[in-house]
Amino acid sequence: MDEQRRDGGSGSADRRILERISEMVEAERDLRAALVEGRIDQSTEHRELKDIEEQLDQCWDLLRQRRARVRAGEDPDGASVRSVEEVERYES
Asked: Residues in the chain with pLDDT < 50?
């Protein structure tokens, strides 16, 4: 039995979320390098990092929701992206 059948296709969606997380982590590294190299100023770095960090938090939250739904025997596709405000409230 392949992974897609075992998990109802959730493995593929989870992989896409993890790929997006990896892309954003790389974008964070690029921003930091751009600052060190003088290609962007500190305020630009802070503004763009904040945006990336919020998106990362949303991705991690979605992945946690999906995994919790699987553990509970529910459809992971019932998970949804929550607003930045809602995710940040959970993280504090």
From this structure: 1-7
